[in-house]
Amino acid sequence: MLRTLSVVVMLLVSCVSQAATESTMSLLDNRFRVDPTIDQITFLIYRENPSQPVVLVRPDGHKYYAWKTYDNVRWYQEPAMDIVSIENPMPGPWQAVGKVTPKNNIRLISHLTLSTDPFPNRLYRGEVIKFTARLASDGQPLVLRDFLDRVNLRVTLTKYVENEQELVKEARPLPVVLGDFSDDGQGLDERPGDGVFTVRLTIEVEPGKYRARITSGNGVFLRAKEQNVLVYPSPVATTFIQSRREGQPHRFVVSGEQGMVAPGSLAVHIEQTAPDSFVNYVQGQAEKEALKAEMSLDSTHQIGIYSWKGDVYATDAATQRPLVFPIAEQTFSVVKEVDIEAARKAKEAELAEQRRIEEEQRLLAQRAEDRKQGLIMIAVGNLVVIILGLIGWFVWSKIRAKRQAIPEMQLEVPKK
């Protein structure tokens, strides 16, 4: 009897609970209610495809539009969907005015929180780290695929400046995007659609102090996480020594900085690709208490271009944090062996021919200059003669005119 009674009670509670849930999700005329305890809410509004963004109407009648900018609202739109995030929404009945599809209607995400891994106390330039972020709604992992696919979380580093907000926009440092999170089960992400976002961060910035920010690139998620981080110079150095003799292998040396890298923790993985696309894998590690690892790479002296890349693994001496430093792909060439004596003679002949051409060009230039000087002298001489002639003619004309102006003396014969 008691067992039957308890079953009936459980069924009644289940029905009431289900009815309450359906009442909450059944939105009459696209209306929904926001609880007073909610300080942040996100609306997923499914519309007919294609259609205009909806208009959100607050309980007091104030309207929100997709094309307007509001301090507490972020609006992301697609041809058939709106995702609207609102900080401190007004409690009470809201309404979405638009071509909302009756099948999917509107989904509400309340108490949306973003949690992330803390950045290490010190980052090193060139290192790669796995960084995760988690989205939760009402304390539970958020697994709504339509939302997760559109969050577009990213990590940026901005040079640290005191009182950055007081500077004019043009004077503020620009953020550097380190990577975009994904929740697709690819790369470093463990499981798709579990609300855990993962990104592979490569710290490719100059050493210094930065502000690390985790934000939503398209504004779907309103809030951002921020942390000050320090970036130090790379504690490892790599050196590749190419062999110049047949049969002698190439050498690759990795050195760790004293006090930064734990002794004996260095390990190296190298992939060397030959001109015929054959890939040779080489691995090595430092001896116990050593801060250097040396490896030999095959030297076949096959003519062509070789490439190599890899990763250096180490451990931070202070925190015992594992470190990974990728080695960017580099190339070197192997060419045919040449006759040094013949090459020397050819080079000397080339230099002699070059000197001969330069001498000919110098002589031609000198002759042209001499010819130019001669023409200038002739022109100047002719000009001087003309000027002197004009001056003489002018003086003679003056004298002649003066003489003609004076009357001749009249002589009288004396009378007898």
TrEMBL record:
<keyword id="KW-0472">Membrane</keyword>
<keyword id="KW-0812">Transmembrane</keyword>
<feature type="transmembrane region" description="Helical">
    <location>
        <begin position="374"/>
        <end position="396"/>
    </location>
</feature>
<feature type="coiled-coil region">
    <location>
        <begin position="335"/>
        <end position="369"/>
    </location>
</feature>
<protein>
    <submittedName>
        <fullName>TIGR03503 family protein</fullName>
    </submittedName>
</protein>
<keyword id="KW-0175">Coiled coil</keyword>
<dbReference type="InterPro" id="IPR020010">
    <property type="entry name" value="CHP03503"/>
</dbReference>
<feature type="signal peptide">
    <location>
        <begin position="1"/>
        <end position="19"/>
    </location>
</feature>
<keyword id="KW-0732">Signal</keyword>
<keyword id="KW-1133">Transmembrane helix</keyword>
